Amino acid sequence: MTTAATAGRFISFEGIDGAGKSTHIAALADRFRAAGQSVLVTREPGGTPLAEKLRECLLHDAMDPLTEALLMFAARRDHLQQVIEPALLRGDVVLCDRFTDATFAYQGYGRGFDLTVLGTLETWVQSTPNGLRQPDLTLWFDVPPVVAAARLSATRAPDKFEAQPREFFERVAHGYAQRAAASPERFARIAADVDLTAVWNQIEAVCRQRGLLP
Ligand code: TMP
Fold first, then answer.
1. Which residues of the chain have pLDDT under 50?
2. Top CATH class, 9-209
3. Ligand 1 center to residue 214 CA distance, Å?
4. Ligand 1 within 6 A of 73 CB?
5. What's the predicted TM-score (pTM) here?
6. DSSP state of 161
């Protein structure tokens, strides 16, 4: 299926927990606004009242892998319908903290859930009349799991995913690398184990190269 085209631009941010996405999402939103763009900052799971309720369950309640995958995609469907598609239609830049690559990385590679089933759900959930909705650009914050774990231990009490052992995050990191290798035109790898300025410089350079920023 072809990728759906829109007036707006859809950028997702991915990486294992502790990769350091949040600061840069806010900075990039400011940068786009300064360039005169309307920006929507959102996140997954979440981004609508229903999807935020599902987020609470997903981050804190025990459930089997199929239930987890279905709820992730249910939250995504609502988010796409209610928030992302209307914003793209308006011509906004949509900055989304995680999207479907996270489901492949966490539920697929991390938990070992069937990748073919995830692919089917992806097609169902992201189909639009114009083709398959995918981000125009995915900024993948690549950081060694040992570095990410050290960053996380300095923050709040861990949720269900953050509490997973190092081997889980090794598998998730491998999953992101596989997804990036499969869609090199969409993914940009950001080396995220360097200081904030060095990470930001990479992000700005990618957005310029792709014609998203002047
Ligand atoms: P966040 O802490 O970056 O907001 O992400 C919430 C957690 O949910 C994070 O540990 C990754 C996980 N997650 C999945 O397991 N699958 C998904 O599809 C998404 C979007 C997030």
1. none
2. alpha beta
3. 31
4. no
5. 0.96
6. T
